[in-house]
Specification:
6-stranded mixed β-sheet; Purple Acid Phosphatase, chain A, domain 2; alpha/beta; 26% strand; binds fe (ii) ion; globular; 276 residues
């Protein structure tokens, strides 16, 4: 069986200090294969916020995998937003904003950047996904060893969480979700919404799932600060959302998700068919 902890939206600058410290302790005291962090590690992209985020991330047990979020650009710096939005993130965190990949026995993770420094629309916090990045990620995950849990990690949910407190409105999100589903990606793991969820993506064989982690910040949207514990074996993935009680984390909800068994050859054929 495998296990990972999925954190998101810590928003250093307005982080929930008690929950952040307890999350670090939880990650150390429970066995895991990976600590996954799906963006919005800072509130406004200030150096001091990145420094605090980097310190917390460095204190996490290895291995750690971090993706960018829309709050991880320098909020007040238009030059950085336009020309080098992820320079500070990459300098402080040391993880690439694009084409990030992680492999371990039984587990393959690929990162795609869905955040932008600016956009041709009014709300720059919404998501955008590049289909070339998507195809590269789909091919990389299709190449995973047979039976590995295949995870695509990004900040914005690619398909909307119906009834959620926030939308991602990801440009090309549905097209990307279709590609990942067709290529046998098991989980699309995200943040942004600040509440936990695990839902089947209603495309293809309906055995790809959108999994969202809550926040560890003070920006609560109807759920307490928390994170997800994701456990898997050959036939099932179990997602447990843990929520802050005021003194510790308690399980709040569990989802049991049935795993597909797509042979590697079929995943590679699907990935090859969508290369541009
Ligand atoms: Fe956020």
């Amino acid at each position: 069986m495998g296990r990972l902890f999925h954190f998101s939206d810590i928003h250093f600058g307005i982080e929930h200090k008690g929950a952040v410290a307890a999350a670090l302790e939880h990650a150390h005291t429970n066995p895991r294969d990976l600590v996954l962090i799906t963006g919005d590690i800072t509130q406004q992209g200030f150096r001091r916020e990145f420094a605090a985020a980097a310190e917390w991330i460095r204190a996490m047990p290895e291995p750690v995998f971090v993706t960018t979020g829309n709050h991880d650009v320098s909020y007040w710096d238009p030059i950085a937003r336009i020309f080098h939005p992820w320079k500070r993130f990459e300098a402080f965190i040391g993880h690439p904003a694009v084409d990030h990949q992680f492999e371990a026995p039984g587990l393959s993770v690929r990162g795609v950047n869905t955040a932008r420094g600016w956009q041709m629309r009014l709300n720059w916090s919404k998501g955008v996904i590049d289909l070339e990045q998507t195809r590269r990620a789909a091919m990389a995950l299709a190449n995973a060893p047979e039976g590995n849990l295949k995870i695509l990690a990004c900040h914005h949910p690619l398909v909307e969480m119906i009834g959620g407190p926030m939308s991602g409105e990801v440009i090309r999100g549905e097209a990307a979700a279709r590609i990942f589903t067709d290529c046998g990606v098991d989980l699309i793991m995200t943040g942004h919404v600040h509440v936990p969820f695990a839902l089947p993506i209603t495309m293809g064989d309906k055995c790809s799932y959108g999994v969202g982690a809550g926040t560890l910040s003070m920006r609560e949207r109807g759920a307490p600060p928390g994170f997800n514990c994701v456990e898997w074996d050959a036939s099932q993935v179990r997602v447990t959302a843990l929520g802050w009680t005021g003194s510790g984390f308690q399980p709040q909800r569990t989802w049991n998700l049935e795993r597909r068994s797509m042979p590697k050859a079929a995943a590679l054929r699907a990935a090859a068919s969508i290369q541009g």
